[in-house]
Design a protein that fits this description.
With 367 residues, the protein is α+β, with helices and mostly antiparallel strands. It is built from nine helices and seven strands, in the order H-H-H-H-E-H-E-E-H-E-E-H-H-E-E-H. It folds into three domains: 99 residues; 81 residues, Signal transduction histidine kinase, dimerisation/phosphotransfer (DHp) domain (Helix Hairpins, Orthogonal Bundle); 154 residues, Heat Shock Protein 90 (2-Layer Sandwich), CATH 3.30.565.
Length: 367
Amino acid sequence: MSVRLRILSNSLTAILVLNAISLAAGFVVFWLVASPYTGSRLNENAGHIAARYFSLGGIVVAVLTAIGALWVISVNTRRVNDPLRRLIRAVEEIRDGNLDYELAATGHDEFAELSAGFEQMRIRLKDSMRQRERAETERRAMIASVTHDLQTPITSILGYSEGILDGVADTREKILDYVAVIHKKARSLQLLAEDLSLLSRLENAQLPLDKREEDFGVLVNELAEEFFHSQQGAKLESHIAPGLNVLADKEKIARVLVNIFQNSLKYKNPEQPIPEITISLVKHDSNALLTVSDNGVGVSQGDLPHLFDRFYRADSSRGQQSGSGLGLSIARHLVHLHGGQIWIISNPGGGISVNITLPLSEGEVGD
C-alpha cells in the first residue's frame, strides 16, 4: 500500500473508531443519569437534565475525537518523518564522501522503494569511484613509467650526439659507433611509441581484426623455428597436435607468440646457461591450448597477477632488461579480442609457463 493511502486509511479508521467509542460512552452516561426520570416519573426537569447531558456527551465526543485525530496525525507523521530523516542522513553522509554508509530499506511502501534505489545508487557510485581511483593510479604509474623509459634513451642520444659535435668521436670508427648507439636508442623510442599507440587502440576497441581460418599448429611451428633458429644455444622441444584450426588474425597472433618467445629467452636463469623452451599444443574441450614453458628466473606468486599490467616489472633483475614493458599487456588484449584467454603459472622446478587458449573453428569442435 502506498504511503498516502496508508496514512488516509489509518486516519479515517482511527477517527471512526474513536467517534464510535465516544458516542457509545455518551449514550451509556445518558442512560445511567436519565433512567431514574423515565416512565411515570418523567417530568420537565428530566428533559432539562437529558438536554444537559446530551450537550456534555457532545463535548466529550468532540474532545475525544480531537485527541484521537492529533494522535493519528502524530503517529502518521512519525511514519513519514523517520524514513525521511534516515534518507536525509544518508544523503549528508554521501555528500561528505562517506560511501560506506548503508541505508536499510524497511517495509513495502514508496519509502522502502526509494531507500532501495538510493542504496543501489550508493553501491554503483562507490564502484565508480573505485574504478576512477584505479584508473588514476594506473595513469600516474603509466606516466612515471613512460617518463623513465623515455629518459634513458634520450639521455644516451643527447650524450652520444654531443660527443660527435664536441669532437670526442675523432675517428670515423668512433663516429660510426656513436651513430649506431644513437640509432639503437632512437629505434627503442620508436618501438615504445608504436606499442603505446597499439595499446591505446586496443583499450579503446579501435583495432580491427582480419580473422581467417588458420592451422594453429602450423603457425606456432613456423614462428618457433624462425625465431629460435637464430638463437644460439637455446634448446627447443615441441609437442604440436595437428589439425587444430582457429579463426585468427595471423599477424596479431604472431605478435603475441613472438613476445612470449622473446620473454622466454630474455629472462633466463644465470644458473641455467642453456635456455630450455618447451612448446605444447593440444585440444582442450572446444579450445586449442598452447603452453610455452621455460627454465628462466621465474616469477613469485605475488607478482603473477600483475604481469599483464602496463609497465609492470616483477623485480630488479627483470627490470634491467630492455623492452617497452607493454608486451604482455598487448598480448592479453589481442588474445581476448580472439575470444581466448592467457595466463601464466610458475613451474615447480623454476621458470614459468605461459598458457593461451583460442576457440577452435566450428568444424573442429566436434571432432
